[in-house]
Amino acid sequence: MGARRSQAQHTKQCVVPRRDARCTTVPKGSFFRISCTEGPQVGDLNLWSASDLAEHFYSGKTRALHGTHVSTGDRLWSRFPSMRPMATVFEDTLDWYGWDADGGSVHDVIGTRCDPYTGRLLSSTDYHYCCHSNLTRALADHADLTVQEAEGFVHDVLNVFMCTGFTADTHQYFMKASPVRVGDHLEFFAEIDLVVGLSACPGGDCGAEHSSDTAACYPLVIDVFQNADPFPEPARNAYDRSHGR
Predict the structure, then answer these.
(1) Residue 92 pairs with which residues in a beta bridge?
(2) Positions of the chain with pLDDT under 50
(3) Could you tell me the pTM of the whole model?
(4) Interior CA angle at 80 toward 74 and 84, to 5°?
(5) Domains in the chain: how many in total?
(6) Does a structural domain hold residue 178?
(7) Does a structural domain hold residue 119?
(8) Which of 21, 27, 205, 206 has a 20 to 30 A CA-CA distance from 159?
């Protein structure tokens, strides 16, 4: 994979505005890099098969196969029935962080995404620029869908750059300020033709408030590096789907 990366050429850049999301396509056999360019910022990542939006990233199965947080060499898997690798983490500039004294680490697949439904439940207010809504709008624009149609394809995320874990006493999910700094990036190898959706979270570095305009937020950037050599995508899962019948 290293040799393939060394021959890849930069072909596209997608800037994700703060408190918003964008989608971009990435051909199989290419690389895409998510970069922090202006200030500490986390992102919520969705992946879809470019040929079938119903085949999307499965965070729960990725967690079962690789653990609660991912880094170099780990793969992001698609949902049933395809269940195949969609992307592999190629380079992680935050791999030095490891696990901190609170049991926190970066790039988790345990959280979901900030959403307006939880906001309505907890505060009786509506906030439309949470990651769920951002990704919904971005996919609707990209795939020419209504927001209601697009919402059904938005799914649990990889929390890029986010620092999270479980508390030692109550075992509840926590988040803390991300160690990400300008120049850091997380780069992936695309195993299949992808639609990549990324939201620049309204929580900023997630060290303070979520689901509001309070936190300092910054854009994120997706760069695509394409290698023209053919690449055979992974086959869909071979299970016959008979389920005992």
Answers:
(1) 186
(2) none
(3) 0.97
(4) 35
(5) 1
(6) yes
(7) yes
(8) 27
